[in-house]
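Section handout, structural biology tutorial.
Before the tutorial, make sure you can parse a SMILES string by hand: atoms, branches in parentheses, ring closures as digits. In the record below the ligand is flavin-adenine dinucleotide, and the chain has 310 residues. In the tutorial you will relate the predicted structure tokens back to the input. Do not try to memorize them.
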Amino acid sequence: MKLWPNAELLVDKLHKPNGRLIPNYPLASSSWFRVGGMAEVMFFPEDVHDLAIFLQKLPKDISYCVLGNKSNILIRDYGIPGIVISLGKAFATIEVVDGNKILSGCSVLDKKLSSFALQNNIGGFSFYNSIPGSVGGAIKMNAGAFDKETKDFLIEVTLLDRSGIIYKVKSSLLDFKYRSSNIPKETICVSALYQGYCSQYDKIYDEMLSMKNLRNSSQPLREKTGGSTFKNTESKKAWELIELSGCRGLSVGGASVSKKHCNFIINNGNATACDIESLGKLIISKVESVTGIKLEWEIKCIGVGSKTET
Ligand SMILES: Cc1cc2nc3c(=O)[nH]c(=O)nc-3n(C[C@H](O)[C@H](O)[C@H](O)COP(=O)(O)OP(=O)(O)OC[C@H]3O[C@@H](n4cnc5c(N)ncnc54)[C@H](O)[C@@H]3O)c2cc1C
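Predicted structure of the complex:
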């Protein structure tokens, strides 16, 4: 694995927070694709104030990004320059407020929020049970499944921007669209208030079970994958276009198109991020030449592929 040669020097330039700053932090093993290089410097803030002060004091020329459960990203092979922020335990609180509302920290996993809602007889969140991301990633991406989306239940989100300012924004102002929001790149979701509705344990449980069974039968969930690679288009689902263009089973190096669901790319064990991205680009060009439609990545490819790109 390649190291960032100036990572220690970068740490020296930073304000010393209460949380942990770690130079050359490997990311592949915790990402869903199991590929990619290191974060130049990883930051685990102790709490929201620690993070706010760190950002206030961060020199303007140093870049950063926040990652959630790494289920919708492809980290390129050289890794991510600058600071990578991971929200930990301080952002993992979850509670019921005012009857059927849920206030959740943004590092809480969607699955955990869904089980919490079940335990409290709050309906609306069964679809989160099968999405392997965190609340922060779900808001940024407007994650959805089974005709439900994050925007349908989100009341407001607490954000933190580069200048260290913490503020609340109503869901209606986030310009949610299919798998996107207008949350700026360097703005971090720290907590979220959701509206559920009164329901019953057995009803919610049955709903969750039927969603789980549907997913197990149609998606390669035990593989190293980033979920749906491309966004569905207005006229056709991405998988239909990929199938139509003869890409089912297509491969590049250790990456291949899933035979079970052809909008999923699989790391067969020895793929590099470059194999996965190259396969994605090959699919885009084949689909465009057969159908005239240009697929748009749903997965976010981040970082740099080689040292020369820095
Ligand atoms: C097997 C599988 C099945 C999937 N099924 C679905 C599905 O049915 N529906 C669906 O919508 N998605 C699905 N996905 C994709 C993915 O789980 C979702 O997009 C999820 O919301 C991403 O959350 P994450 O925490 O993993 O974010 P990451 O992958 O870590 O990051 C994704 C983006 O969100 C940003 N982000 C993460 N946390 C924060 C934060 N706190 N503040 C601001 N920005 C943040 C990151 O910077 C990045 O731009 C699937 C993925 C896999 C691997």
